[in-house]
Design brief:
203 residues; alpha+beta; Aminopeptidase; disordered N terminus
Length: 203
């Protein structure tokens, strides 16, 4: 994990090494250890903020609100796994979903975030624990977003993974209609979560 051992130039350089990525802008942000980044990924400009971690605070990456088109999903699928390689397995990512109508619709029905396209993408990219971060009063923390937690391995994380696993299995047991893609997303998430639990021998 880079942490504070690497300065701004080093972080910008590491991000620029991600395949298919060109850094357009990379500069210090509002807090120490945070950087505002504009990157061109697979031809698309993607804005995000990275925090490299400090003392007891884990690194995080927050993407700016954007239309989650197929092209954006492809770009996220390219960069998300590589961010773990730069900032460490315990990285947290936050992605707004208010302009992704399918995700909004599924979450409004009470469906687990891991059974959405966005949540499933985060899980298969290595952010196995996914939560809906919704602020109903004033959006003081920005737009509603999904938060993906990279593998930490402590008791809370592992117990939360098992709970997520149960929720996804329960969703699949209820079945989906012909036009409901949430079961496809849930199956993909379930495979990824089951795989990491099997690799670490946790039941």
């Amino acid at each position: 994990m880079l942490g504070l051992r690497v300065g701004q130039a080093g972080i910008c350089q590491e991000l620029g090494r991600i395949p298919g990525t060109t850094i357009i802008e990379c500069r210090g942000w509002r807090i120490r250890g945070a950087y505002k980044v504009i990157a061109r990924i697979k031809g698309l400009e993607i804005d995000f903020v990275v925090f490299t971690g400090r003392e007891s605070y884990r690194p995080w990456v927050e993407f700016n609100e954007t239309d989650l088109s197929d092209d954006v999903y492809n770009a996220l699928g390219e960069i998300l796994p590589h961010l773990l390689g730069i900032f460490g397995e315990g990285l947290r990512v936050m992605i707004p979903y208010v302009r992704d109508h399918e995700t909004v619709s599924l979450l409004s029905r009470g469906i687990h975030p891991g059974a959405t396209r966005l949540g499933s993408l985060m899980i298969v990219s290595g952010y196995y624990l996914v939560r809906d971060m919704y602020y109903p009063e004033g959006f003081a923390e920005g737009s509603p977003k999904l938060v993906g937690e990279g593998y930490v391995g402590n008791k809370w994380y592992l117990e939360s993974l098992l709970e997520e696993l149960r929720a996804l299995r329960e969703h699949l047991s209820r079945g989906c209609g012909d036009k409901d893609s949430s079961c496809l997303y849930a199956e993909r998430s379930l495979r990824a979560i089951s795989g990491i639990l099997e690799r670490i021998g946790y039941r």
